[in-house]
């Protein structure tokens, strides 16, 4: 069987280039599950599953049927349902919680996008290659380039497509950290505004049947082979089975699953969880037992600026503008000018996972949130370093030395942590707010090609199964908190749309692994 090329897909599905998947993953890393034997998978013999059930095992349940079943109603699932319906498919969209939105609702509603009308109003010097390099830089270029190129190639289209479903995008005025061009797009109303628009479009589409508080509990396999033919669970309290030509998993990550978090991201266990309630990882487990390759399972998005005393995300700009972070002893422990996610494990590694963001009037005057912090009563003060140390409960001598060292570094233009983005001065009075780290979502999951087909460890497809969003292999890093803003959301939107279209147009069993091909549009600048 020949592989699908970019031109085949452009002709058949009207979406962009596909990822190199046949013959193994681009990263070449060993899967967490052993490669499945295709002959055994085809026969369905000799296998006992914890989650999956055969058709004959769900015969006593109420039956529903659609061309495409989408499990999970966050950004990826909403896009998959809309995209499948646009291809003429009937769709059942199941969400286990009582509301759609998932992690997308909690997001800032930001994605990097190249070549949109909004971006071209600001600059015309950007390129797909430049954006790809920016996204891959935090991982030291260790993630799959085919995944990254695909989302960047499709970034303009996803902005325009979601605009057709009611979203409103603007380009941020600031050059976002880690991005070398003005390309960060934000939806009106942030993540809530985006999901509200998508939900309204889903509810207005006759071909989509929505089921809230519908908890699917596993996949359904053909009696004779390990081919996915739907899923089973409970619609409210009623046991149901949904049969479909193809099934799309959009079940989110596992940041709200303590056991999986302990297994894969132990350093993030103490973090404050700012995560979707439904991010419990079951879709990943369902796919894993069918032989799906799991990749980048130790990767996650963190945030180093969670206010301990107000239980809110603080303002990173105070650090960017020259503030420093010390631990309970009064010592600095990192360069405070950096990615908010990358800094989170540094904060969590301190005694009790606590840091203090310390700053002066220079940072206070530029802060958008200082007045709010004062009203909330979370600001600690000191007329000199000794007084602020007492307010923090730190060793005065250590904190005074920390401040003195920083002041000297400002004079030389670089400090011992190689920080060169320094303020003009760091003079009293001093202020501080208490912080710890957050986890926002995980960035690992089942491997797919970028047609959304779920891949086994040997590169073969699990027939009838597609996936998108937080339950799939991310491209932020191989493990840890390296992250570029917008990665999770653009992955969910683009691959949700792609997986939905593929699931709607490919007969079960006819799908083939897809190849991504680089072209002139992918060039750097």
TrEMBL record:
GO BP field: steroid metabolic process
Keywords recorded for this protein, A-Z: FAD, Flavoprotein, Oxidoreductase, Signal
Keyword Metal-binding applies: no
GO molecular function, a single term: steroid dehydrogenase activity, acting on the CH-CH group of donors
Xref: Pfam families: FAD_binding_2 (PF00890)
UniProt xrefs under PROSITE patterns: PROKAR_LIPOPROTEIN, TAT
Occurrences of domain FAD-dependent oxidoreductase 2 FAD-binding (ranges): 67-489
Signal peptide: 1-21
Cofactor(s) listed in the protein's UniProt record: FAD
Name under which the protein is recorded: FAD-dependent oxidoreductase
Organism name: Adlercreutzia caecimuris
């Amino acid at each position: 069987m020949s592989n699908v090329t970019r031109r085949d897909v452009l002709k058949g599905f009207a979406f962009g280039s596909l990822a190199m998947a046949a013959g193994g993953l681009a990263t070449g890393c060993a899967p967490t599950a052993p490669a499945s034997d295709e002959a055994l998978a085809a026969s369905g013999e000799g296998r006992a599953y914890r989650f999956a059930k055969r058709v004959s095992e769900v015969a006593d349940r109420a039956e529903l049927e659609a061309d495409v079943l989408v499990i999970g109603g966050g950004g990826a699932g909403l896009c998959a349902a809309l995209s499948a319906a646009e291809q003429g498919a009937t769709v059942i969209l199941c969400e286990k919680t009582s509301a759609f939105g998932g992690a997308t609702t909690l997001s800032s509603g930001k994605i990097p996008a190249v070549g949109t009308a909004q971006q071209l109003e600001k600059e015309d010097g950007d390129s797909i290659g430049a954006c790809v390099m920016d996204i891959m830089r935090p991982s030291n270029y260790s993630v799959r380039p085919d995944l990254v190129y695909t989302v960047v190639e499709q970034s303009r289209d996803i902005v325009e497509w979601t605009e057709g479903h009611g979203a409103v995008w603007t380009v941020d005025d600031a050059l976002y950290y880690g991005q070398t061009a003005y390309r960060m797009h934000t939806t009106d109303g942030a993540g809530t505004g985006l999901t509200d628009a998508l939900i309204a479009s889903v509810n207005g589409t006759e071909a989509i049947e929505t089921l809230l508080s519908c908890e699917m509990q596993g996949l359904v396999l053909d009696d004779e082979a390990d081919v996915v033919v739907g899923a089973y669970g409970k619609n409210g309290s009623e046991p149901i089975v949904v049969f479909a030509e193809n099934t799309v998993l959009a079940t989110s990550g596992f940041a709200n699953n303590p056991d999986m978090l302990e297994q894969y991201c132990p350093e993030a266990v103490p973090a404050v969880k700012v995560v979707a309630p439904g991010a419990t990882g079951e879709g990943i487990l369902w796919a894993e037992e069918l032989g799906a390759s799991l990749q980048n399972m130790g990767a996650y998005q963190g945030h180093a600026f969670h206010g301990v005393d107000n239980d809110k995300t603080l303002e990173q700009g105070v650090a960017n503008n020259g503030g420093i972070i010390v631990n309970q002893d009064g010592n600095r422990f990192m360069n405070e000018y950096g990615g908010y996610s990358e800094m989170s494990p540094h904060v969590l590694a301190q005694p009790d996972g606590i840091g203090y963001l310390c700053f002066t009037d220079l940072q206070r005057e530029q802060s958008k949130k200082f007045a709010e912090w004062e009203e909330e009563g979370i600001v600690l003060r000191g007329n000199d370093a000794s007084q602020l140390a007492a307010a923090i409960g730190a060793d005065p001598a250590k904190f005074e030395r920390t401040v003195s060292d920083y002041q000297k570094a400002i004079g030389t233009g670089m400090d011992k942590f190689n920080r060169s983005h320094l303020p003009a001065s760091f003079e009293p009075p001093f202020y501080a707010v208490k912080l710890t780290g957050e986890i926002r979502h995980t960035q690992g999951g089942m491997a797919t090609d970028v047609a959304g087909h779920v891949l086994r460890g040997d590169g073969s497809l699990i027939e009838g199964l597609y996936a998108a969003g937080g339950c799939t292999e991310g491209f932020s890093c191989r493990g840890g908190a390296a992250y570029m803003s917008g990665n999770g959301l653009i992955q969910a939107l683009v691959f949700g749309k792609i997986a939905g279209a593929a699931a709607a147009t490919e007969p079960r069993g006819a799908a083939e692994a897809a190849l991504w091909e680089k072209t002139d549009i992918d060039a750097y600048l």
